[in-house]
Amino acid sequence: MKSIFVSGIGTEVGKTLVSTIITEALEADYFKPIQAGDLQNSDTHKLKKLVTNQKTVFHPNSFQLKTPMSPHAAAEIDKVSIKANKIKRPITENDLVIEGAGGLLVPINNSETIIDLIQPEDKIILVSRHYLGSINHTLLSIEALKNRGLSCSGIIFSGDEHKSTEEIIEKLSGVRILGRIENEPYFDENVVKEYAQLFQKKLKSL
């Protein structure tokens, strides 16, 4: 059993879609510790619609916050106290995909951030998407992991190819590029299955 922690270089870069594909590829369990906002159509709900294997178990969030804001701010509005040590990972013999919220340094309280939810044994997948500043954000995310004694197991790009960007990120970071998810016209169960098959071998070798 291995745990895969999926984080991004920021918000709206494709973490949930990448988590969906990894979950399908490995027939892994899925766990989103903190869900902030959109509780009727949460990330867990989205995965349930797209993951079709019969093995995956979708574990409940540790915290469900009503407001779509940074967890620390949403928790304050809901009068909830979030602490990393209050988040208990589900017990399972299956592989486990854990999806973070936003980027690695998104605060969950006044002293802890999403990176504090990562455990040393986790395989960390960083999702990067091309935009002005994305090289900086990607490299800073990898540096943040290194500063905690953690290593990134691979980068998955989301969106259109930008060859020079991908090449310089790989060269400067030394992190393996696992592949890219294109800007597809739509994502349904069949498209997710296709990407799952494409990534399966690399993910199993982590």
From TrEMBL:
Catalytic reaction list: (7R,8S)-7,8-diammoniononanoate + CO2 + ATP = (4R,5S)-dethiobiotin + ADP + phosphate + 3 H(+)
Origin organism is: Mesonia maritima
Q: What name goes with this protein?
A: ATP-dependent dethiobiotin synthetase BioD
The residues that hold Mg(2+) are: 16, 43, 99
GO molecular function terms attached to this record = dethiobiotin synthase activity
Q: Which gene encodes it?
A: bioD
Q: Which cofactor does it need?
A: Mg(2+)
Tell me the route in metabolism or biology where this protein functions.
Cofactor biosynthesis; biotin biosynthesis; biotin from 7,8-diaminononanoate: step 1/2
**What Gene3D superfamilies has UniProt attached to this entry?**
P-loop containing nucleotide triphosphate hydrolases
Q: Which EC numbers characterise this protein's activity in its record? A: 6.3.3.3
Task: Describe the function of this protein.
Answer: Catalyzes a mechanistically unusual reaction, the ATP-dependent insertion of CO2 between the N7 and N8 nitrogen atoms of 7,8-diaminopelargonic acid (DAPA, also called 7,8-diammoniononanoate) to form a ureido ring.
- Which residues are annotated as active site? 32
Answer whether the UniProt record assigns the keyword Zinc to this protein. Answer: no
Carries keyword ATP-binding? Answer: yes
Which branch of life, at top level? Answer: Bacteria
Give its localization. Answer: Cytoplasm
Quaternary structure annotation from Swiss-Prot or TrEMBL:
Homodimer.
Q: Which family does it belong to?
A: Belongs to the dethiobiotin synthetase family.
Q: Which UniProt keywords apply?
A: ATP-binding, Biotin biosynthesis, Cytoplasm, Ligase, Magnesium, Metal-binding, Nucleotide-binding
The record lists the lineage as:
Bacteria, Pseudomonadati, Bacteroidota, Flavobacteriia, Flavobacteriales
Any idea which positions bind ATP?
12-17, 43, 99-102
Top enzyme category: ligase
